[in-house]
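Hello Y.,

Per our agreement to keep a running log of every chain we model this quarter, I'm adding this entry. I've kept the format consistent with earlier entries: sequence first, then predicted structure.
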Amino acid sequence: MAPQREWLENDYYKDLGVAQDASADEIKKAYRKLARELHPDANPGDTAAEERFKRVSEANSILSDPDKRKEYDETRQMFAGGRFRGGGNGFGGQTPGSGGYPGGFSTGGGDFNVEDLFGNDGGGLGDLFGGLFNRGQRAGATRPRRGNDLETETTLPFRAAALGTTTPITLTSPAPCTNCHGSGAKPGTSPRVCPTCNGAGVISRNQGAFGFSEPCPDCQGTGSKVDDPCPVCDGNGVTVRTRTINVRIPAGVEDGQRIRLAGQGEAGLRGAPSGDLYVLVHVTRDKIFTRSGDDLKVELPVSFSELVLGATVSVPTLEGSVGVKIPPNTSDGRTLRVRGRGIPKRSGTKGDLLVTLKVAVPPTLDEAATEALRKYQAAERASGFEPRSGWGGER
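Predicted structure for the entry above:
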């Protein structure tokens, strides 16, 4: 069955429980809520919940993709009502693109179903005009229906996300049957070419002045027939099972980014290509590091004497430590830049390490340190140093 026909039959907005003008965030939240409630792991043995889970996943795969959603909305709007009007001649007195299109199509021989406009490969109106001039001739075989895209989530520590890692993800979803390897046929046998459509998956028929292509009723548009179905998947080539996938997370991935795994989504029927899997990455906070783009940021506690006299201190990075030189008479809060010690980039280079210096005040001082500090204070005043000079304006 062509995707456009399914779009006419299924109300994806209703499946997700959202309005037609719902935002992308509203669609995402609705899908995640329903996916958690209907997931097979949460409803073992509940076939109704499993079927609903598949419908919700399919709805999300269309509505979460801006291009597919636009096409879906336009298709349903174009063919709202389910039938074209009949009783006229040609195009009902209207030319394609005028005010009467598409509601004014007529064959001169009565109404016809909107489904007649769609072939198994989603040819749409192209099949209508192709049938008109070719009288039902069709070139090429039908394309197998691709499986739906899936989405899942994973949470990573900050440093693992910054450096890249491989993490296992467990999914329960439709996947190729391991008994028949997705063919739908019992092991030791193979599907045969459908004799009705000769493997094309579609047949042609004439209605008045038009020729139409429609899915072959004997093979349901697959182009093949299974005489001895696989007992595990009942001939579909797909079963719902739990599988573990090792996902390679590229270095530098940020919180909220999605990673696409081609062909790891829902399996297509009878060996058709699988959809894609999208992994939404959440990154936890680190006790030391934060990031700004590709730069790694750290606040380094230092003593007053290190700022005044200067020092070389050890600063942690994502990979070991690095020595950072503090110039004499450095102000509290100054940020020092260490080149090439930040977040890895796609180009193979790295961002920078930004070290912000923060004075750490000792909680207590012994008598000797206190006496030394009082002497320093006196010497500081004798030198004429006033820390608030010019601060706050003249009074």
